[in-house]
Amino acid sequence: MANKAAAEANTFPKLLIHNARVRGDKPALRHKDLGIWQIWTWSQVLEEVRAFSAGLESMGIKRGDKIAIIGANKPRLYWAICAAQALGAVPVPLYADSVADEMAYVLEHAEVTVAVAENQEQVDKILSISERVPKLTHLIYDEPRGLLDYDHSRLTWINDVIKAGRERLEDPAMRERWEKTVAEGKGGDLAIILYTSGTTGRPKGVMLTQDNVLISARNGNLFDHLGENEEVIAYLPIAWVGDHIFSFAQSYVAGFCVNCPESGETVVEDRREVGTTYAFAPPRVYENLLTLTMVRMEDAGPLMRGMFNFFIGHARKWGEKILNKEKVPLGARLIYWLGEILVYGPLKNRYGLSRIRVGYTAGEAIGPEIFKFYRSLGINLKQLYGSTEASVYITAQPDGEIYADTVGKPNIGVEVKVDDNGEVMFRSPGVFLGYYKDPEKTAETKTPDGWVKSGDAGFFDPKTGHLKIIDRAKDVGRLNDGTLLAPKYIENKLKFYPNIKEAVAYGDKRDFVAVMLNIDLVAVGSWAERNNVVYGSYQELANHPRVYEMIEKHVDEVNRSLVEEGPMAGAQIKRFLILPKELDADDGELTRTQKVRRGFIAERYNSLVNGLYDGSKEADIRTEVTFEDGRKGVIAARVKIVDMKTVPVPNAMGKAA
Amino acid sequence: MRAPSQSDIAAGEVLLAVENVSLSFGGVHAIRDVSFDIRKGEIRAIIGPNGAGKTSMLNVINGFYTPQRGKITFRGQTRSKMRPHDAAAGGIARTFQNVALFRGMSALDNIMAGRTLRMKRGLFWQMLRFGPAMKEEVEHRLRAEEIIDFLHIEHIRKVQVGRLPYGLQKRVELARALAMEPDLLLLDEPMAGMNLEEKEDMSRFILDVNQHFGTTIALIEHDMGVVMDLSDRVVVLDYGRKIADGTPEDVKQDQAVIDAYLGVAH
């Protein structure tokens, strides 16, 4: 009965009303504020969203208007999404860490009329570009600190908007009108525009309808059997489709509770207090957690370290088998059980993953070692392949079918195929309407019969039936001798070493493969401390001869593993260098989702790339850096280039066969 | 509460005045016949080269040192010497040049320690942690949490202070001083030893404290750039004497100040 009613609710505002009726007293949202978890039940959320929505209406917001939402994961910003949708307006979340210039582009392109900003920082950014966005007439802010002295003619505190809405709703006619507006909402309505950061060019506005988001969320819940008792923590950028599905859509559909952390720095602690059951994170988060653990264990006493190493070794051997419910000897089970009490349990508690049922990693490939580490502890970590254009879900690994190097099987309702050029294509109810104001790009990506080109090259693994992604389709290239080259594949292999934070590989239309690397300051810094390596700056550490020695070993191991895997044996790394500066999204070297922009980096570090290929032992670089406050500085350095001995290919079995 | 404008301050009510104060240790004259005032709601900087007597001046205001000559008027009450507990009870809080926190306690406990003067129930009740004492504790904790939120130190709330990096320790110390809800806040080199980013954060916090709580602030600082940006008025000391007093712009152009900082040929 309830399910049928839920199925009839074809928009998120309707779902909210449904949830308030069916599970009104269950917590819908928690936010840690002043050290205490504040709780809102579904009926309270409805009450707030309704008032907020009425307040927006009194400011003149109507169907089709665009409302920008900028800030961290705060309850009121999530309410803003639903409040806008209730009026038929379209929320446009922006990345909170984008610089003013990027914001100006999106605000202007989306024709935003009202922006909801988290705090002074965001308000300042918008005010600084206000003459570029004449259509933006009003700003609403959540955190009043520091904003009291600002000119309030175009600026309103969010609480005042909600209060105005509440007063407006005291009139029963207004209440009726609001309910009528919600009822007029249809599944085909535009629900949200999500701007993708894009590895090249300007961001594109992906238009998703209520149906897209809602049906995808429902299928996702079905796939993983998620119910109303899940707990998730919302800490990823709200402008990212992942957060929109996991922290908003799935919660509304299933009725589970979303927890907003106190601040970005307290997420691990807050996650531990909440005990999340369903988690979602890019590989980076898992990597950082593991690096931090390893660094701490290096500093621990010998007894602790010994215990840790023994039980982690045991888990590596048996943990995954136990998780996959395979046959395991009793002795191994007993030791694992002891390890659970002594090491795994406390560790999982530290990570806030004690109660985890399903954990996903997506966005990029995760290192097999890292992936196996978490699974060996008994954490059901799985891989997922998704995109904004698909409302996230394309493929995911079903429980019990976990392989470190695949991204799983098509999700419920999703069709996937690989075209003749090796590009992965998909079709599903979650497939986007189009790019906002860009029919040309839409036509390039989406075929008339609804298939979307993912832009990724991949293939179905004949053994498992799972999809494998090797690289971006356009990035797959060939060396001059015709050897197949997937740069990302090599980069990922390198990045799986904790000492290497970022890697950029070149080789398309060249004679050999060369890479530029970033060291990981946490891991290498801790190594330097333990080995009495003295350094004064990142640049100095990056250029240290012993760091080079260490990295050289890693590169050599990567070459060896490429040879073992056969088809890419010809694409071994011949030369490498370590960059004197960390690649940074503020300098345009990474996307906002932290993917390397290979072409841009090649231009910017042109002299280094030339050095890699002209055989010189050193190369000079001068480049501009942007600090967080927008000021610019210059980095100048002389960088060493190292030649690698390549591993001989064992008398080409491929050719002989 | 809003920070008063420049003109408000010029005409403003005097919160604290020192008149003809002299302080010497044996034959060393740390302060010689210095007078100046601090007006309500302003950020007042005390600057000068090394050994000019800045910290001594702060210690006189705070009651840590007793001057041989001169008077201190705080909120209309004149006395020849201030005692530290009178200063604290009267609403003067301070931070130290070399952080002086309880290193073995958590950041939160350090901040709660700043609330001690505001606790009304006696030791007996506090030990019981029951009824009215508990209620009071909750109120104090709320205030402490507001300050934690204000200074963005949620993530270190329960971390032992001794384990924190220096910049954060300075912030915890500021938090403890704020927990006293002072009328006058004395900051002794709040930015010493910080990097550029930490300095910028700290400047932002000082301005916010002044604006948000309306706290009057007197600060000693070496970094001239910071002083000129932050303060409403500046007093300059050199060899224990006052050599200039006025707005940052005036002081910057004062020949005596330029000579004191850059040195002159004798």
Mind sketching the topology for me?
The complex is a heterodimer of chains A (657) and B (266).
Chain A: H1 2-8, H2 12-22, E1 27-33, E2 36-41, H3 42-58, E3 66-70, H4 75-86, E4 90-94, H5 100-109, E5 112-117, H6 120-128, E6 138-141, E7 155-157, H7 158-169, H8 172-184, E8 190-196, E9 204-209, H9 210-224, E10 231-233, H10 241-254, E11 257-260, H11 267-274, E12 278-281, H12 283-299, H13 302-323, H14 330-351, E13 358-361, H15 368-376, E14 381-387, E15 392-396, E16 409-410, E17 415-418, E18 423-427, E19 434-435, H16 439-445, E20 452-460, E21 467-472, E22 477-478, E23 484-485, H17 487-495, E24 500-506, E25 513-519, H18 521-530, H19 538-542, H20 545-564, E26 573-578, H21 598-604, H22 606-613, E27 618-626, E28 632-643, H23 653-656
Parallel strand pairs in A: 1-11, 3-4, 3-5, 5-6, 6-7, 10-11, 12-13, 13-14, 25-26
Antiparallel strand pairs in A: 1-2, 8-9, 9-19, 14-15, 15-16, 17-18, 18-20, 20-21, 22-23, 24-25, 26-28, 27-28
Helix pairs in contact in A: 2-3, 2-4, 3-4, 3-7, 9-10, 13-14, 13-15, 21-22
Chain B: H1 6-10, E1 14-25, E2 28-39, E3 43-47, H2 54-62, E4 69-74, E5 77-79, H3 84-89, E6 92-95, H4 107-113, H5 123-128, H6 132-150, H7 166-179, E7 184-188, H8 196-213, E8 216-220, H9 224-230, E9 233-238, E10 241-246, H10 248-253, H11 255-262
Parallel strand pairs in B: 3-8, 3-9, 6-7, 7-8
Antiparallel strand pairs in B: 1-2, 1-4, 4-5, 9-10
Helix pairs in contact in B: 4-7, 6-7
Structure explained in plain terms:
The complex is a heterodimer of chains A (657) and B (266). By secondary structure, chain A is of the alpha/beta class. Chain A is built from 23 helices and 28 strands. In chain A, the strands form seven sheets. A five-stranded parallel beta sheet of chain A has the order 4-3-5-6-7, with helices on both faces. Chain A has a five-stranded mixed beta sheet with strand order 12-13-14-15-16. In chain A, strands 24-25-26-28-27 form a five-stranded mixed beta sheet, with helices on both faces. Chain A is globular and about 80 Å long. The longest helix of chain B is centred in the middle third of the chain and has 19 residues, at 132-150. Chain B has helices at 6-10, 54-62, 84-89, 107-113, 123-128, 132-150, 166-179, 196-213, 224-230, 248-253, 255-262, and strands spanning 14-25, 28-39, 43-47, 69-74, 77-79, 92-95, 184-188, 216-220, 233-238, 241-246. Chain B folds into two domains: 1-91 and 182-266, P-loop containing nucleotide triphosphate hydrolases (Rossmann fold, 3-Layer(aba) Sandwich), CATH 3.40.50.300; 101-181, no CATH class. Chain B is built from eleven helices and ten strands. In chain B, the strands form two sheets. A six-stranded mixed beta sheet of chain B has the order 6-7-8-3-9-10, sandwiched between helices. Chain B has a four-stranded antiparallel beta sheet with strand order 2-1-4-5, covered by helices on one side. In chain B, strand 1 (14-25) and strand 2 form a beta hairpin. Chain B is α/β, with parallel strands linked by helices and 266 residues long. The A-B interface holds A 33-36, 145-146, 148-149, 262-263, 265-266, 269, 628-629 and B 2-3, 141-142, 145-146, 148-150, 152, 154-155, 157, 197, 200, 208, 211-212.
